[in-house]
Every structure is written in C-alpha cells, then in structure tokens.
Amino acid sequence: MGERTLPRIGCVAGVFDLFHVGHVDVLERARRQCDRLVVGVLSDDWALDAWGARPFVPLLERAQIIEHLRCVDEVVAVDDVRSDWLTDAVGAQTVFAASATDGVLGVAELDGIPARLITVLPAGRASRSPILRAAIDQRQSRSTNVA
User: Fold this and answer.
1) What CA–CA distance (Å, rounded) separates 15 from 13?
2) Would you state the pLDDT for residue 144?
3) What stretches in the chain show pLDDT beneath 50?
4) The pLDDT value given to residue 141
5) What is the pLDDT of residue 146?
6) Is 112 strand, coil or helix?
7) Which of 13, 89, 24 is nearest to 50 (CA)?
8) Of 39, 44, 91, 147, which shows the fewest CB atoms inside 10 Å?
9) Residues near 114 by beta carbon (within 8 Å), at least 6 away in sequence
10) How far is CA 87 from CA 66, 82, 84, 93, 122, in A?
11) 134 vs 147: CA distance, rounded Å
12) 125: which residues sit within 8 A by CB, 6+ positions away?
C-alpha cells in the first residue's frame, strides 16, 4: 500500500466586504496552491477597529457569499487571526497574504504569524464598477486616518 499524504491546508483571512472579482482572483490563486482552502471572514468589530467603520455587508452575508465559491472548502467567522488558531485549530501549513487587495489581509496585518507560514499572492483585479470603487476608496481613505 502506498504512503498516504495529508492534504496541504491553506488559509486566507479578510473582511471580504463589497465582494468583487479581485477577491475571487485571490481565493482562486490560493486554492491552486493548496489541497484545502479555509477562509477566515473577519468580524464587523475587527473591521471597526481596523477601518474605523463597520463593513457595508454584515458578517453572516459575507460568510455566506464566500462559502458558495467552488474554490473554498471551509469558512470560519473570526475576530482575529492568531498563529496558534491557524496551526492548531485549522491545521494551516500556509497562510496566504494578498498584496493590495482591499479587504484581504496583507503581510502587515498578519503580524505575529511566523514568516515561514506566509505566502504572498499578487493582487487580484479591481472592480470596474465606479460605485463600488468609490465606496472602497472612501473606506480606505477613512482607515488611513485611524490611529
């Protein structure tokens, strides 16, 4: 009998507010690099602390959107992303960070996660919707003013 290998588990965490094609790009890229993709959807309170405002879309709806994607194997609502939770509870061997994709954690937000676990993914496409872009840009400008 051949040796059975365990599936490689990856994790992406983010708010995923105003879900758009860039989020899909990041999640699909992450899934191609692991056997099982777990997505941590950050709470409204986390977003309030980080951005100075609650997400436009409530946590339950954001989680339901993510769980219906073919590239996602499991969705977990979380208040924070901690190293012990990722490695012990989730079993993640890789934590994906997104470069410049709004609402998905980047390397700076993964403070406390060992660098050996982090894989940086390129940014996904930006939404072409002018209304969506304006809302995202407004939120990002507010979050840069939060101390």
Assistant:
1) 7
2) 52
3) 146-147
4) 58
5) 47
6) coil
7) 13
8) 147
9) 83
10) 21, 9, 5, 7, 23
11) 23
12) 21, 22, 25
Q: Residue ranges of the alpha helices (H) in the chain?
A: 21-32, 44-51, 59-67, 83-84, 130-143
Across the chain, mean pLDDT equals 86
Q: 85, 110 in Cβ contact below 8 A? A: no
Whether the Cβ atoms of residue 14 and residue 95 lie closer than 8 Å to each other: no
For CA atoms 64, 103, 74, 87, give the dihedral sign: negative
The pLDDT value recorded for residue 143 is 54
Contacts of 72 (CB under 8 A, 6+ apart): 27, 31, 37, 39, 66
Contact 133, 126 (CB under 8 A): yes
The predicted structure's pLDDT at residue 87? 83
Q: How far apart are CA 25 and CA 41, in angstroms?
A: 16
Which residue in 110, 85, 84 sits closest to 13, CA to CA?
A: 110
Is residue 80 within 8 Å of 113, Cβ to Cβ?
no
